[in-house]
Amino acid sequence: MATPPLFGAEERSKESASSWRVELFAKRRSQLSSEMAARITRLTVREGRRFDKGALLVAFDCALEQAQLQRARAVLEAAEAKAQVHDRLSRLQATSKLEEKVAQAEVAQARAEMAIIQVKIDHCQIHAPFAGRVVNVTAQEHQYVKAGDPLLEILDETNLEVVFLLPSRQLPQLAMGDRFDIAIDETHRTYPAQVLAFGAMIDSVSQSIKVFGAIDGHFAELLPGMSGTARLPTRENSPPHSPP
To answer: What was the pLDDT predicted at 237?
Structure first.
């Protein structure tokens, strides 16, 4: 990837540019919370650390749930054995239809109980839904947490979104797919970007609309929260547009 130009390194011929303040946001950002009441046994990441998609982030003490699963499995095996006996007896007409149906219902109930416990066990570990970095850690190993307690905040710093407010009177001059430049304050460099979408409505107070864009390419130095100036080129011979 070529190094982005410094501010003012390029000039546009026969164009003038409108400039608007922009901010970079992570498209994927998530607050991970506990889905169960349990003690944390492992917390594998710290603030600022990177992780891969699917990596184990948090593990809970689920000894009780594992024991419940073993018991549910034993109950299911017993119910299935009983149902098989009633099935053979039914073929010999040595049992009633009611007893056979009760045995089948016991199997279904045992399977449902086992499925419920398995769902609890699935919550015993939290894996990364995407590759990214840790923004904040709000829990510690050996801490007991309740269901819904926040644990980690994570984001994908490689997938950034550009957001800025555009005066509504200039909306006719910009379309989805249009390209523009962003001068980022923190890096003192200019980056290419593209318009992806517009907000659903115009703010009646500020008479502005949100514009969403994306950086063209990946630049490791860019981080969510950085800000700068979007330079939107406007042709000098463009006809004037009336305010909406």
So the answer is: 43
